[in-house]
Amino acid sequence: MFLTSGSNELDCHSIHLEWCLSSNHVPLTITISIIKEHVNLSKHSIGKGSEEEVSFIKDISMIFRNLNTSNISDPTSLDKIINDLAQKAEYAWEKHSKIIKITKHSKSWWDNKCSHDLEIYRMTRSLEDWKTF
Fold first, then answer.
1. For residues 92 and 84, what is the distance between their CA atoms, to the nearest angstrom?
2. Burial 63-74 (b: 16+ CB within 10 A, else e)
3. Cα–Cα distances in Å, from 47 out to 40, 52, 88, 96?
4. Which residues in the chain show pLDDT less than 70?
5. Local structure of residue 6 (DSSP, 8 states)
């Protein structure tokens, strides 16, 4: 058993001499606590090359063009500008993105061309269309 040295959570193993049978090995156990964690099952997404992506980029470009940086005189004014920029970018993201569900079948590499090629293969069942897919 390899454990992290100096870790309170992972350095508390038990040696069970009484569990040893005819072998010269002694069973070891460790209890690892698992923290309850919230896992998001959905996220906002914009498809690559989509109309939504083009609109989002236009909105972000406009936000940067209209950003007034002439009055940055202290850290407080800089924080205000940065927070305003972040708020506007988040609004543009939510405006153009759609919520998708994350499942065990979700694939980041799958795109509209994959769907199109699969649909063609399903209609024709040809080996060439399968290779294209």
1. 12
2. beeeeeeeeeee
3. 19, 7, 20, 10
4. 1, 9-11, 104-108
5. T
